[in-house]
Amino acid sequence: MAVACYTHPTFFDHDTGPGHPERAARLEAIEQALSDPRFASLDRRQAPAATRVQIERVHGGRHVDEVLSSVPEKGLAYLDPDTPVSPGSREAALHAAGAVCAAVDAVMTGEVDRAFCAVRPPGHHAEPSRAMGFCLFNNVAVGALHARAAHGVERVAVVDFDVHHGNGTQAAFERDAELFYGSTHQYPFYPGTGAASERGVGNVVNLPLAAMSGSAEFRAAVDTRLLPALDAFAPGLVMISAGFDAHRLDPLANIALDDADFAWITEALVGLAKRHCGGRVVSVLEGGYSLEGLASGVAAHVEALSRA
Q: Is 125 noted as a catalytic residue in this protein?
């Protein structure tokens, strides 16, 4: 089974400052986890930078200019109280979005079966005209619209199991019936969106989980609501916003999933992709702030992508 992993050295240059949870050590933990011999067959690829055309399918030119021009020559600048940028942030953000577009290309052309993009900054909180929540550009949404524009994929589904609701992806998708967004997330919680009543044009499925929910609640929501909705949507490509901050070890949230849960949903989504789109899956890193939980969760996820 050919699975590619996209990353880039510039992701380490996105400096978020002392004490910030979205830090370069996250990628170091992931790299260490994926150096295990069981990942020896992983096709490791360097991410290209996204083009403005690719990014502007989601974000208008004014937003792109505002983000890129906010990058300081030294020190930190802030796009919101949680979202710093440093001199290395420009290239990191461009390569993060570019990783997803390249992964879509590789999967859609049959070079690989599936792909995982180990990127930062994350993306799912970035709205079409607003950076927020550690996110500059919405990487997974950029990839989804690239799949449509470059490969003619009519129906793209994004499933988001980050503990925080992906308000940015929902905002980019909610008026387009050929884009699907499904999310499991702690609720009520940051960023305040993600109620079950938020349904877009019937293409949004929000599965809010109460604080202290665990495997049983998570799996029941996926089994009874998410997977049936995905089957009915019949995607031509499945994409994943893979956040690991719903791990029981994570310090920023209160959902108690474990590695087996991340493997389980990954296998379920690959199975669905096999039914509808030749098994094509592109996964994109979002959150996860316990280094131990992030490393073990990513390892379980990538292993499931490889074997399923």
A: yes
Domains defined along the chain, listed by start: 3-307 (3.40.800.20)
Report pTM. 0.98
Catalytic residue among 8, 59, 125, 247: 125
126: which residues sit within 8 A by CB, 6+ positions away?
A: 59, 132, 133, 135, 136, 137, 138, 168
CA distance 184 to 205: 9
Find the radius of gyration of the CA atoms of the chain.
17
| Closest to 34 (Cα-Cα) out of 9, 60, 6 | 6
Longest CA–CA span in the chain (Å) reads 50
Alpha carbons 239 and 114: distance in angstroms, whole number? 10
pLDDT in tens, 93-137: 999 999 999 999 999 999 999 999 999 999 999 999 999 999 999
- Angle at alpha carbon of residue 131, lines to 241 and 80, rounded to 5°: 120
